[in-house]
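Chapter review. Work through the record for Glycosyltransferase, GT2 family before attempting the end-of-chapter questions.
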Amino acid sequence: MKIAVGVATCGRKAILACMIDRLAAQTRRPDHLFLCPATDEDIDMERLQSAPFPVSIVSSQRGSCPQRNAIIDAAAGMDALIFFDDDFFPAANYLAETEALFEADKEIVVATGEVIRDGILGPGLTAEEADRAIEEDATPDPVPSIEAAHNAYGCNMIFRLQPILTNRVYFDEALPLYAWQEDVDLCRRLRPYGKIVRFNRLRGVHLGVKMGRTSGMRLGYSQVANPLYLVKKRSVSLQWALKLMGGNVASNIVGAVNPPAYIDRRGRLQGNIIAFGHLLSGSLDPKNINRM
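Structure tokens for Glycosyltransferase, GT2 family:
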């Protein structure tokens, strides 16, 4: 198989360089790395010169969806495309296990792995903490377990490219900037073309780096606007959207009383409130965050 890795990056030059080091340490290296930066300052060009695999820099407008779509088009000659967040460190056998999985079952169209530790749930992890977590992983070579999944987790998503390109199923660029829940949307739209699975031998750590993320208010708005937009386009169910929205709004209400330093709960709650106001007035639209 020809397996590419794609990374849409913004404002994380140093941690991206660390992630590329982990790609270089893979037992099965990528056939190509496609990077799409938000700006020219997001890439360490000197570091790329020493990468032990071909690297291409792809251009697009800023935003998770257009950046990833540009990578999809650039990777058209590949069989599979792995999207890693720039702050995701894969275990050394991640690509080898990807190849084995996709060769064994041609019906798999989307796959995702097990996140050993997820810094998004706290203040974030350092590169050293992530490496230690991978080294100390209690099940580095677990008994294979392939389970059906609703969607891939955005920090580590593997796509068989042929169904995407043949059916023109791309990330929805109506979800701007951070594009919250774009991973769910794309996966659900690919479901008619094959299986979506979670494979426990695809392992890694999501550092959850806080820099380069959208503001609390913008994210709070997206927590309401984006799920309802996905319901309207019928890529997710209303039940799924209401459960997701309810959990996030409740967390923001409780967290706004004494918010941790690493999560802007009050900003998110403010965004929630603005979104509900727009819902009542009929002006709710994910693209409204561009004006916030």
